[in-house]
Automatic annotation (TrEMBL):
Any single biological process term in GO: cell redox homeostasis
Top-level taxon: Bacteria
Keyword Metal-binding appears in the UniProt entry: yes
Cofactor(s) the record lists: [4Fe-4S] cluster
Domain 4Fe-4S Wbl-type: from-to ranges: 35-92
UniProt cross-references to PROSITE patterns, sorted A to Z: 4FE4S_WBL
One Pfam match: Whib
Organism, scientific name: Nocardioides antri
PANTHER family hit by this protein: TRANSCRIPTIONAL REGULATOR WHIB7-RELATED, TRANSCRIPTIONAL REGULATOR WHID-RELATED
Name of the molecule in the record: WhiB family transcriptional regulator
Compartments where located: Cytoplasm
Family to which this protein belongs: Belongs to the WhiB family.
Region (Disordered), start-end ranges: 89-109
GO cellular component, one term: cytoplasm
């Protein structure tokens, strides 16, 4: 293998997704029951308001893999609700962040 090929090979393994696959893989154990695996609305776990967050947290409340799910979300720098906790780049959030342009301050209406 030439030096150039070795470098290309190493570059491929420096991507975040591959790193996560090695450091925080999803366990494929048939005994683990991921409660949301067949949920018809994946958007539930990416809430845009507090009511949506409450709905996702209520769904996660009884999930048997809740702690493992949260651990994976934290280790993978994930977004959305993992283990009943809203994450943004792997950091727990206390509220749903506001999206879009902030309101103008001091503008005459
Ligand atoms: S805890 Fe994780 S696996 Fe369980 S329902 Fe919530 S998001 Fe899905």
């Amino acid at each position: 293998m030439t030096a150039r090929k070795i470098l290309a090979h190493e570059d491929r393994f420096e991507t975040k997704g591959v790193t996560i696959a090695f450091t925080a893989p999803t366990p494929h154990d048939p005994k683990l029951v991921w409660a949301c695996a067949d949920h018809p609305d994946p958007d539930l776990f990416h809430p845009t308001d507090e009511a949506g967050l409450a709905a996702a947290q209520a769904f996660c409340a009884d999930c048997p893999v809740r702690e493992l799910c949260l651990e994976l979300g934290l280790r993978r720098d994930e977004y959305g609700v993992w283990g009943g906790v809203l994450l943004e780049n792997g950091k727990p959030q206390s509220a749903v962040p506001r999206r879009g342009r902030p309101p103008k301050v001091g503008s005459a209406a």
